[in-house]
Amino acid sequence: MIDTRNPTRPSKTFSRIYVAPALQAYLEEGGIVEDWLNGRTPLISYARISADRLKGDGIGVGRQHKNNARNAEQHGCVVVLHYEDNNLTAAKREVKRPAFLQMCRDITHGKEEETGVPVRGCVTVERERVYRLPRDFIAFQDALVMAGDGDGDGVFIEDKSLLDLVNDDGTITAGLITSGTEEAEVRKIRKRTVRNAADRAEEGKTYGGPRRFGWLGACQDPYRLGNKHKNADEWPHLIDMIKARYAGRSWRAIAGEINRRKVLTARGGRWTEQGVKALVANPAWWGGRVLNGEVVTDRKAGDPVIGDWDHATEETDGVGYETWKSIMTGVRANRLHRGMRRGVEVPHPEDQLRTRGYMFSGTLRCGRINDFEEVCYSKLSGNKASGKNAKYGDYYRCGDANCKGVGRRVVPVDQHLEELLLAYLDRHFTGTKVEMIPWRGKDKIATLRKQRRDIKNSVASGTADWSDVDDLITRLSRNIQALEQEEKDHLAAERKRNLLRGWSREKWGQMELEEKREVIAQVFVSVVVMPVPKGVSDKAPFDPTLLKVSWRKEKKAAQVARPRALAPSQNEQ
């Protein structure tokens, strides 16, 4: 079941699916789903919030689930599963909503894929939570039409109203028009937002958005605009970072120094090289602004427009616009809003492309004690050897700003860890059999293909007119296409799940680098690289004892069976 939350990196944005608490409690007491349903129609409670104003606790979607459960009972239905997309908009085509997509698939097949819990439709507090774009409306409607055995008895409840999206009673057309109108309105709002941002930039109005380091945030009582007034505690540190870069210090050295002062970022974290670079390269500190890759200037005089927020000047802080221009001559900025538009004639150096070209980059961790008297544990990344050190070959290196770091040559590290990995796989996975779980939609897609073929044959034989079946053919083709994509996704997931099964050294030799990295992630938790002991030369022979391997537990690495169903009878549905 989907759960994109990451405990180590909490975020407001996540998607998840879980069994309704009331049903879960019943099952844990030994009950089965059929007895709990007792003739009631099982529904999915879908909840979504475009912008979580809190801390990602899911309070908003939780309130929606509570209302959905009450509203479902009014129609003889009951919520069996919760699907939620938190902090995700439904108005942008490029934004994927994992829970929504999975909901459409599960309604199509009549049950949740892993647990087998039956579902017959959806309940939501308002239709805009489910769909706003015509594309999503059609996908959701198709799922209701194909629900269960394809009888078209999918249920959709909006608030307290039971809506019919299956039968063509005008609801379908109304739904398309509504969602299409909403999409057009969203496009207008986007254009209006861009135009407003350009106007405000030309007028020198204050930046919007989250609080930036060096300025105070917004406040309601007393009222205060965000990013307008200096933060007296942070401003001196901002000026110090600017002056340090102007004096030629590296981004890493600046980040290390500011961290040693125990000064936190605007979000409360530690500084990184990229964080310092983004702050110093942003023209806001001297009062400027960049739009479309160019500094905003006065159309008549041609001078930069100076904003109406507090900013640094040569007179008060010793740095200003000329300082920024000097700093930016040494900045390779790919992001246009930094005011460094890359000329067409300047090619992008190939060696600057960030690629995953090293087998154990990301798996290796630094074991040195850093400036904070704690184990660094930062990831080591692969680096191409150059200059006088080129003869030693490429190397892994820790890049943390507050650590002197450790480094090791790529070749001996890869050879040693690869042999450990292969020996582990030989011992635990040689002779295991690949167990592919059949795709659940095989019969359904075969039925739809036969229906489409029969309809086309009836047109060819003259027993049906094309104009009468055109809409039906279109719907069937769309449903088949959606199921074909689901089948591809299922096969890809099964391939990954069986990656270690049927193991052999020949299989390893046939893998691409990305596949090998997937295997490594399933076997190693991490490999801590310890610093070379005092008195030992950096040019000493490779010492494998300085690599401390953390293995994933065998039961975790070898667990490739399908998750256990919630109740014995549910897999038979």
Describe the secondary-structure layout.
Layout: E1 14-19, H1 21-28, H2 33-37, E2 41-49, H3 59-73, E3 77-86, H4 98-109, E4 121-124, H5 127-130, H6 134-145, E5 155-158, E6 161-163, H7 171-203, H8 235-246, H9 251-260, H10 273-281, E7 290-291, E8 294-295, H11 314-317, H12 321-328, E9 364-366, E10 380-383, E11 395-398, E12 407-409, H13 410-429, H14 442-461, H15 466-497, H16 505-509, H17 513-523, E13 524-529, E14 547-551, H18 554-557
Parallel strand pairs: 2-3, 2-4, 4-5, 9-13
Antiparallel strand pairs: 1-3, 5-6, 7-8, 10-11, 11-12, 13-14
Concise description?
This protein is of the alpha/beta class and 573 residues long.
Can you characterise this structure?
- It is a single chain.
- By secondary structure, this protein is of the alpha/beta class.
- It is built from 18 helices and 14 strands.
- The protein has helices at residues 21-28, 33-37, 59-73, 98-109, 127-130, 134-145, 171-203, 235-246, 251-260, 273-281, 314-317, 321-328, 410-429, 442-461, 466-497, 505-509, 513-523, 554-557; strands at residues 14-19, 41-49, 77-86, 121-124, 155-158, 161-163, 290-291, 294-295, 364-366, 380-383, 395-398, 407-409, 524-529, 547-551.
- It has a six-stranded mixed β-sheet with strand order 1-3-2-4-5-6, with helices on both faces. A three-stranded mixed β-sheet has the order 9-13-14.
- The longest helix is centred in the N-terminal third of the chain and has 33 residues, at 171-203.
- It is globular and about 85 Å long.
- The two termini are 18 Å apart.
- Residues 334-355 and 555-573 have low confidence and may be disordered.
